[in-house]
Amino acid sequence: MVKYKMEELDFLFIYEHKVRELENLCLLKYELDRRGYKVRIIHIEDAQALKAMRPIYHTKVVVTMACYQNSSIEWHTKNFVKFDKLIDMQWENIVFPRDEKNANAFKNYSGVAKEVVRVSWGEMNKRRMLDVAGLNPKKVKLIGHVGMDFLREEMRGYYLSREEVLSQYNIPTDKKIFLFVSPYFSDHHTESYLQEMCDRFGEGWRYYYRDCMLPSKKIILDWIGRICREREDIVFIYRPHPGEESEQADAMTEDYPNFRVIREQSVRQWTLISDKIYTGNSSTFVEAFFGRKMCYLLFPVPVPEDYELAFLREADKISSFDEFEETTRKDDRPFPVSEKLIDEVYTIDWDKPSYVKFADMAEEVLRDPYYALTKEQLKAYYHKMGPAEKLTRALTKITPLYNVYLTMLEHDRPGWKWLERKRAARKKLEGIAHAFEKTSDEEIAAIISKIAKQLETTKMPERRRQ
Question: If residue 236 lies in a helix (H) or strand (E), which one and from where to where?
Answer without folding.
Answer: strand 234-239
